[in-house]
Amino acid sequence: MKESLWSLFSAGIFLFVMIFNHFKQLEKFQGENENPKFHGYKGRINIRQAPVNPTNVSEKFVSAIVDATGVDKILDYNDPTTPIGAFTQWQLYQKPYGQREGSSTAFLSPDILTPDGLGENERKLRVFYYSTVLRILFEGRRAVGVELLKEGKMLKVYARKKVIISAGINSPQLLMFSGIGPVRELQQAGIPIVFNNPNVGKNVTNHTLNTAIFSMNQRDMADLQGDPFALYTGGAFLPHPFSRMNGRRSVQLIGTVSEGNLIIVVIFLQPRSRGTIRIQNNDPLKIVLADEGFLDNPFDMETIKAIFRMYIKPMAMKLSTIDSAYQLLNPTIDTIDNDEALEEYIKENFGHNHHQQGFLRMAPFSRGGVVDNQGRVHGVDHLIVADASIIPFSVDGNTSAAAYLIGYTVAKNLMQEE
Ligand SMILES: Cc1cc2nc3c(=O)[nH]c(=O)nc-3n(C[C@H](O)[C@H](O)[C@H](O)COP(=O)(O)OP(=O)(O)OC[C@H]3O[C@@H](n4cnc5c(N)ncnc54)[C@H](O)[C@@H]3O)c2cc1C
């Protein structure tokens, strides 16, 4: 690897630049469905298709979805030719024996990083532990480094080339404390303006989450123990209930078993509601004010109701004919059939996930953007954002792979610039 020529400082994903070669293949797929066209096998991130043997619950759940919605039963939802369908096995960030895999286990393992935070084998890498970046340092409009708090001490660290921010949900806060954000908000907090961008912290997008609870056949509990790390038992990606032929996935169903019940997690992947992230004052250690704007756009409520009416109810009816021990308990069929009661159920039952994205959106400035198509922050120089905050539209699945891909792409582009 041509070691990085940049001095890079950021909160998280900048490490991807340093370990670029290892990232050429993102994942190491382990599953019965070996699909070399769409999966890597030599990368550092382990993906496990689980459970190894589909459970009875998942077989029944999947049959019911297929019968009720007309989608296919599929084996690999990450094969772009089969994005929609129902499946008995999930693809999980797990090592072969079920341990959780993540960017730190995959990319900051002992062969890459010493316990002191230095790169192994002369890799140009330095990780500051117990450190919180407070702001980006500028000379004029050029980012030159960061100020950070490390174990009670303030440090300034300078970049020879570029500064890359990847603080996830905190990235807007870092920009705002550095003078990039809505002018009024920054002025109120007494923060000197570097670039007035009203789009910073807007457009917060998150998938919605509800549940449907079923009784289940207690004899089906036994084979769940076969793979205790499998997490889920069956699932589906479905099209939008109002536009079922457009081929895009809009709904994610996740089967789980808890306290003797089958719980189907219902996720709407294409919400139109948008939230905001704002700072409270000029204290960089103060948590931001985050409003995810759930259900602000009435289209989202209409869609979630349609998901219950058009997918969950018919699926429940099929499931009970496959095995009468499986009955929809909550919401009841009566609730689903009553618009007002269903709306109330959805609000009361509303859950939270951590798929926040888009609050430093990749788009032209005039169209709500904060970064350009290379992740470069509008209005300033030498500052890049590389995390889920720049995702321009709602990801149609879980979000970490998108965050990894953003880190990879930014790294690749920077390497090509050299
Ligand atoms: C409990 C949980 C479970 C999840 N499960 C899944 C899953 O199974 N599959 C999936 O695809 N996605 C999952 N997600 C979502 C996924 O983790 C996120 O989409 C993804 O991590 C976003 O990546 P990111 O780089 O944008 O931010 P992050 O991963 O949050 O990285 C930001 C990093 O910056 C650090 N940081 C923040 N502020 C500062 C600062 N001021 N100074 C220094 N460091 C700072 C943070 O500590 C963090 O390490 C889950 C999220 C949560 C919270």
Strand order of the largest sheet: 3-12-13-14-11-17
Bound molecules: flavin-adenine dinucleotide
- CATH architectural group of the largest domain: 3-Layer(bba) Sandwich
- Quaternary class: single chain
DSSP E strands, number:
18
Instruction: List the secondary-structure elements in sequence, H or E.
Output: HEEHEEHEEEEHEHEEEEEEEHEHHEH
Q: Largest sheet, if any?
A: 6 strands, antiparallel
Distance between the termini: 13 Å
Low-confidence stretches: 1-25
- Number of domain units: 2
Q: Treating each run of at least 4 consecutive H or I residues as one helix, how many helices? A: 9
Mean pLDDT reading? 92
- State the CATH class of the largest domain: Alpha Beta
What global shape is seen? Answer: globular
InterPro entries: FAD/NAD-bd_sf (IPR036188), GMC_OxRdtase (IPR012132), GMC_OxRdtase_N (IPR000172), GMC_OxRtase_C (IPR007867)
Domain Glucose-methanol-choline oxidoreductase N-terminal: 35-208
Transmembrane segments: 6-23
Cofactor: FAD
